[in-house]
Amino acid sequence: MQFVKYHAAGNDYLVYHDDTPFDFSTPAISVICDRHKGVGSDGILVPVIEPGKMLSVRIFNTDGSEAEKSGNGLRILCRYLWDQGIVTDEAFELATKGGKVHCQVLDHGRRISIAMGMAAFPETERHAVDVDGMQLQLNPVSMGNPHCVVFVEQPTETLARRFGPIIEHLALFPNRTNVQFVNVVDRRNLTVQIWERGVGYTLSSGTSSCAAAAVSHRLGFVDDQVTVHMPGGQITIELDEAYNVLMQGPVCKIGRYWLDQECLSQIG
């Protein structure tokens, strides 16, 4: 069983690179992604490449749940497809559970640009909620997957780890949610810490960057071009008047891994 590992702004994924069907169980996915007992990653990407059909991908979180969309994961998949000679530097389309995206490989695979679709805002755009004794303003938004943007004076890992898992499981979000803790630096820059649904604390997230920029722009805090700064790196976001989001960010190849069957014998 082979995987190719990449990271996108510190958010790392394994791409399944094998001729046999991907049929791993939820416990197996968790072991493979475990950083001490397995290969280690923030998730697994499974390309679906069928003649005559649009390229598509399945995205698995570390807890085995399947995600609708992942901005960093999609950039990584684009790089993988480019490395395999399946796509070129011409624009192409890719299908996800969270909708179709338009992709282009730049800078010899080092950067990827993806039109991520439209940010969708609910009818009630803000919710004042007591979370672990602190009053927070929650700003839900969808990028094809659920997000909740929380503006704070100083985003920290400690803050994300404390409040992220609580917000993720609030009844307000029946399918759970990704959570972004955001500080507006100026009209073109945001700093963000992220709690990712089904993964936990993570160094960066593409769809989280899109969500943070979209909500910040809708509230008048930033312009239509924003750089999102996260512990793992930076992603640039552009928004049009309809809140269609264009994301651009880096990808780095780490290496190829062969998973031994013995690894999966730990399940139990």
Structure described in brief:
Homodimer. With 268 residues, this protein is α+β, with helices and mostly antiparallel strands.
Secondary-structure map:
Blueprint lengths: L1 E7 L2 E6 L9 H8 L9 E6 L7 E6 L4 E2 L3 H13 L8 E5 L2 E8 L4 E8 L8 E5 L2 E9 L3 E6 L5 H12 L9 E9 L2 E8 L3 E3 L3 H13 L6 E6 L2 E7 L4 E7 L1 E7 L2 H4 L4
Parallel strand pairs: 2-3, 11-12, 13-15
Antiparallel strand pairs: 1-2, 1-18, 3-4, 4-5, 6-7, 7-8, 8-17, 9-10, 10-11, 12-13, 13-14, 15-16, 16-17
What does this protein look like?
The protein is an alpha+beta fold. The protein has 2 domains: 128 residues, Diaminopimelate Epimerase, Chain A, domain 1, CATH 3.10.310; 119 residues, Roll (Diaminopimelate Epimerase, Chain A, domain 1), CATH 3.10.310.10. It is 19% helix and 43% strand. The protein contains 5 helices and 18 strands. The strands form 2 sheets. Strands 6, 7, 8, 9, 10, 11, 12, 13, 14, 15, 16 and 17 form a 12-stranded mixed beta sheet that branches. It has a 6-stranded mixed beta sheet with strand order 5-4-3-2-1-18, with helices on both faces. Strand 11, helix 3 and strand 12 form a beta-alpha-beta unit. It is globular. The mean pLDDT is 96. Its EC number is 5.1.1.7. Keywords: Amino-acid biosynthesis, Cytoplasm, Isomerase, Lysine biosynthesis.
The helix count comes to 5
Helical fraction = 10-25%
Task: Quickly count the domains.
Answer: 2
Give the CA-based shape: globular
Question: According to CATH, what is the topology of the largest domain?
Answer: Diaminopimelate Epimerase, Chain A, domain 1
The class by helix and strand makeup works out as: alpha+beta
Secondary-structure element order, N to C: EEHEEEHEEEEEEHEEEHEEEEH
- Cα gyration radius (Å): 18 Å
CATH architecture of the largest domain: Roll
Say which CATH homologous superfamily of the largest domain is assigned: Diaminopimelate Epimerase, Chain A, domain 1
- How many runs of DSSP E, i.e. beta strands? 18
- By CATH reckoning, the class of the largest domain would read Alpha Beta
How far apart the termini lie comes to 20 Å
